[in-house]
Design brief:
Hex-like_dom2 (chains A, B); 8-stranded parallel β-barrel; TIM Barrel; alpha/beta; glycosidase (chains A, B); globular; 7-stranded mixed beta sheet; homodimer; 3 domains; 690 residues; disordered N terminus; signal (chains A, B); Chitobiase, domain 2
């Protein structure tokens, strides 16, 4: 290509001095300093690897090269990197002292030195070197016709050793490609633990050779084969990521009990036959896969030896698939209803002097510890497993907060004070559609609690859970990204890195770059909007989606039955995301205007209001041939109505009755339409009240 | 959801009478008649299956329901369909007389009867019923607030029994999810043969347990596991699709010979050592995986018994993965250079009285027939295998045409006259970026050749080959779709269905609907443009992409070395597609204007010209921070320059020197920029010359 040659020469031209504020690195490194000058990228850019790294470095370095290639369109001469010291003269020299282990507490540090003619990446382990390559990719700059790296020195290491993302493959099954691209996303922001929620009321997702009934009866044909699991574990390890599997017991048991009702806790009296032939039979409850969302009663029977036989056998088959040290057994949300109503279980409690269901669950969980220890696995569970007799070897996964009637992070403090290692998820529930600022403000290290250094050390880090009641493979990425990158920064960077404006600015570029990994968080929107618009071209629908956010918390699917697990979720709410882009920008425009009512600041605000007036009119036209647009019209009208009045007031300087304004404004404070809310309400309120 | 209830009632309101011209069915059915009235869709819509179908019907019916669900946002109550006669009262009744075989000549017919209260889909086999469900999905209509099917009767069957798509997984490896979504696309347009090109100079893509060297040395780690292959074969069969694997021999042999150089044809004299210690050694040639595109010399040695031992053993392992009756052994583009220069092979020819390399290749191919017959497979090969002593059992894949110095389809006629069954691919090379009208005009049944009925019957059908030298998983869909749907229509529908305007109109909707299958042909564009623009918002780049088409034929990568097989292909040419949308629409606008110079017709033309003037200015702004936009500026400028002059002439009624116009016009007839051409050149020419 002719213009490649052009680049070759052009790239030596002026590259203005870059400042730290211009960098879009995330997580922000522990130390970075910039100097004058730049390293110019050319088609002949090459990578050389020395030292004694694990083989994963070759996969990593080749992927690094291809991504840089794709961004720059340079199509470097170097193809695959498969061995040590292949190109001693290469401009990028990567040295690793030793192979890294995929485990907690591994040395993940690296140092990156960019000079005008050479880049040196040194790390103790290849895992650190992988992180360094991600930083280098994020440091890429460009002029109008060339790409370069700024001369700089970075030395970096993580603050917490557990920087996790959980994906629920049970509610909506997430195929292998979805998992893989999200592992790539994790690696790009230096996350290192993938918690894979594989079993829940809605499905069993692990191929079982000794217990095929679990997939035959409880997966709808949607499961990961053992080969696929091994392949994903390898894929994760190649990216420095540890996989922690979860089989959720004893609650969330519908799937297991669909296949093995005999170990369920419920015993029911059934009326069989009718009329004179009718009789009452006490028989094993039949269970079915759950199709709704919520907390359900099906629970394993802790008094039945068969329960433990089955679980032990399951662990024997599943544990070898996961070489990592941890196994998550869930343990959450067991309400014990079926235990209370089962006389046999009540007897069992008495016999074992178990005062309540908590102690009964502890009894149950304690049986699992040796089953896992046999495979060198430590048991991890949601905070409910932390009862008074629970082994101190268990890792406590802290998740409850205000929504569960508890102080946020309380269980984390309780855990470390009680001698348990712990991981924080409360505050990181990305499925709940809160804005990025909320998650970014949550720190695993409690602020106002005095902890000893020993106790602090038990706080392993944090993890963002992505539950999948309301997402499909087409929408999950837009729920995970880009917000999870902010959580990754919280877990990696210094606790002092907290500037939300800097985060927001960097997140735009980070989000854009994540797309090169195949993540669909940006482009999935287009296809879904095309369906809603019935293939009609229009900016109006996009404009509306940029000021709407899905209902937050558990309000969208409040009774858990509005959407089934097989619902394709192709609605407007599925297109919208937290941090609606125009809403964020409009808020800034309003703040600017209220601070300084210059003509320029005013015109920005007015252009938004005009856009929404036009949007409403365009949406009405669109809706003539698009049934799925109909439910959005009332929402659009509300925004148009207040916009028109504000235009009269601000643009035309007319006197507008404040009661009229307030009335129209409050109509925008609604959750009644299409499972979304108008994210501009608060900004509009500022304008109205100004 | 409140609006679902709204739909329930609204859907009973007026639905205007639909005409055949409004239907967006493709391939067009053999018989379809519309009557007044409609079947209204409600949330309670259900499917029931009766008869004796193969189990694949349950997968198919469940998928059908989910797709209808996603389109309408109704989220039907019915979840999974897993057995016969589950819902006897269902509105959609599907009956199949018997299970279908995944084979040629299977009965694929169906009849579909839509009445206001009931839909009946009858078919001999489930394969026919699957086709009927696709037709039903395509018949979906809507009012402003409801969805319905028009009352109608359809009876349908295919014209040809081989309606194929070939995907080359060797040049650029195409992961499982790419294959699966394209199988879904094939099923949506009733194609039934997936030809999987699995081996070429650039890679061996089949996991081999007995010959692991093939993947260890010749796949770059990119291959399909045997489990994945079985899984894909099952996935295809569930959609009525037969999989035909291809291992291309004896040419295109670099990958096989990288692992097994000892069966290569080349013997080289090597200088080993230097100075006094130097000596000449005759030794086995070392082969490497090919990274470029083109025709290469590495060829298996037909005189070496080890060649046949290896191939026989390979077939023994690969054949059982594919239950279908056909195995494609390639056989193309063997230039015989290494045969000519190898004395041992020349001796072998003499000994076996093989007059030339064609006869030698025939000798080679004939050895493969019993290896395949052992597994009940018929041998298929590209037309080069058709030499005078070739077995009549072989199926001839006709591919050469003008580009290969041959009359298009000549080998097809030769084949059927010679007693061979044959499949046409010449004219269906979708990787070459020709417009849909070109492919649509090609009919497997030759027009001007007298053939007996027996000879005609040997024409099995046609197949669209998608070679992957210049595509990646991110771009392949946009090369396959939507044009392949037009080829599917050519192969299914009556030979009289040839109206290109009707095709173009229907193709817009078909293309849109294919997106629901996860195909990325529409939305991949957005992500690539975001990269080129360096994440700057702008319509200009999109506007330019809508008037540009990638260079056609083999001109883009003419020496085969500009792009390597590991090049990520993220350039502007990779975003552009044949049938550039604005170019097609502009041509119509020009035709309308030249026919009737009304103000309205003129304003449409003028708005395009104005758009391109503004586009050029916007692109210049964009390019200040986007190196990948730079190479597009000269092209944009050429379009702007002629647009400005035409605006002066048409809009301002000024006298513009025709030599100036012609000069600027011819600058638009260029292939010099960014591997694309301006698809509006011909339309501009009409305007200039008017």
């Amino acid at each position: 290509m002719k213009y490649i040659l052009f680049f070759l020469f052009a790239s030596f031209f002026s590259t203005a001095q870059v400042t730290k504020e211009q960098l879009n690195v995330m997580p922000w490194p522990q130390n970075i300093s910039l100097s004058e000058g730049s390293f110019a990228l050319t088609k002949n850019f090459k990578v050389n690897i020395t030292g004694a790294p694990n083989e994963r470095i070759f996969v990593g370095a080749t992927n690094f090269l291809r991504r840089l290639d794709g961004r720059t369109g340079m199509f470097f001469n170097q193809g695959f990197i498969t061995g040590l010291n292949e190109v001693p003269e290469a401009q990028l020299q990567i040295n690793c002292v030793r192979g890294g282990k995929i485990d907690l507490y591994e040395d993940e540090s690296y140092s990156l030195d960019i000079t005008p003619n050479k880049i040196t990446l040194n790390a103790t382990t290849d895992v650190g070197a992988l992180h360094g390559m991600e930083t280098l990719l994020q440091l890429l700059q460009n002029t109008n016709n060339s790409f370069y790296f700024p001369v700089s020195k970075t030395s970096d290491f993580p603050r917490f050793t557990w920087r996790g993302l959980m994906i629920d493959g049970a509610r909506h099954f997430m195929p292998v490609d979805v998992i893989k691209r999200n592992l790539d996303g994790m690696a790009a922001v230096k996350m290192n633990v993938f918690h894979w929620h594989l079993v829940d009321d809605q499905g069993w997702r692990i191929e079982m050779k000794k217990h095929p009934k679990l997939i035959q009866m409880a997966s709808d044909g949607n499961y990961y084969t053992q080969e696929e699991i091994k392949n994903i574990v390898k894929y994760a390890a190649d990216r420095g990521i540890l996989v922690v599997p979860e089989i959720d017991v004893p609650g969330h048991g519908s799937a297991i009990l669909t296949a093995y009702p005999e170990i369920g806790s419920k015993v029911e009296i059934l009326n069989v036959g009718n009329g004179e032939k009718g009789q009452q039979l006490k028989q094993i409850q039949k269970y079915d896969l759950e199709r709704n969302a919520g907390i359900f009663t099906p629970t394993l029977d802790p008094s039945n030896p068969k329960t433990y036989e089955l679980l032990s056998s399951i662990f024997d088959e599943v544990c070898p698939l996961f070489p990592g040290k941890f196994f998550h057994i869930g343990g959450d949300e067991n309400e014990g209803k079926d235990w209370d109503s089962n006389p046999k279980i009540q007897e069992f409690k008495k016999k074992h002097k178990l005062a309540n269901n908590h102690e009964l669950q502890t009894y149950f969980t304690m049986q699992l510890i040796p089953m896992l220890k046999k495979h060198n696995k430590e048991l991890m569970g949601w905070e409910e497993i932390m009862t008074k007799n629970m082994s101190k070897d268990a890792i406590i996964h802290s998740w409850k907060g205000a929504n569960e009637g508890q102080m946020a992070g309380q269980s984390l403090v309780d855990a470390v004070k009680g001698g348990y290692k712990t991981v924080l998820s409360n505050g990181y529930y990305i499925d709940l559609m809160y804005e990025v600022a909320d998650h970014y403000a949550v720190d695993p290290m409690p602020k106002n609690v005095a902890l000893t250094n020993e106790e602090k050390a038990r706080i392993l880090g944090g993890e963002a859970p992505m539950w999948t009641e309301l997402v499909t493979p087409a929408t999950i990425d837009s729920r995970i990204w880009p917000r999870t990158a902010a959580i990754a920064e919280r877990l990696w960077s210094s606790e002092n890195v907290t500037d939300i404006n800097s985060l927001r600015k960097r997140l735009k570029t980070v989000s854009f770059r994540l797309e090169e990994l195949g993540l669909t968080h940006l482009k999935s929107k287009e296809g879904l909007l095309r369906n809603i618009s019935n293939n009609q071209k229009s900016d109006a629908l996009l404009d509306l989606s940029n000021v709407c956010e899905p209902l937050k918390g558990y309000t969208r699917n409040s009774d858990g039955t509005e959407y089934k697990m097989y619902s394709p979720l192709t609605l407007f709410a599925d297109v919208c995301t937290p941090d609606a882009s125009d809403a964020v920008d409009f808020d800034q425009a309003v703040l600017n205007f209220l601070k300084d009512k210059s003509a320029e600041n005013q015109s920005v605000v007015i252009s938004y209001l005009n856009k929404w007036v036009k949007m409403d009119s365009d949406l009405n036209v669109l809706s003539n041939n698009a049934p799925l647009v109909q439910p959005l019209l009332p929402l659009s009208k509300k925004l148009k109505d207040i916009s028109q009045q504000l235009l009269l007031k601000i643009d035309k300087k007319e006197n507008v009755d404040s009661s009229v304004l307030n009335n129209l404004l409050e109509k925008c404070n609604t959750k009644e339409h299409a499972d979304v809310e108008l994210a501009v309400y608060n900004s509009l309120k500022k304008l109205v009240q100004a």
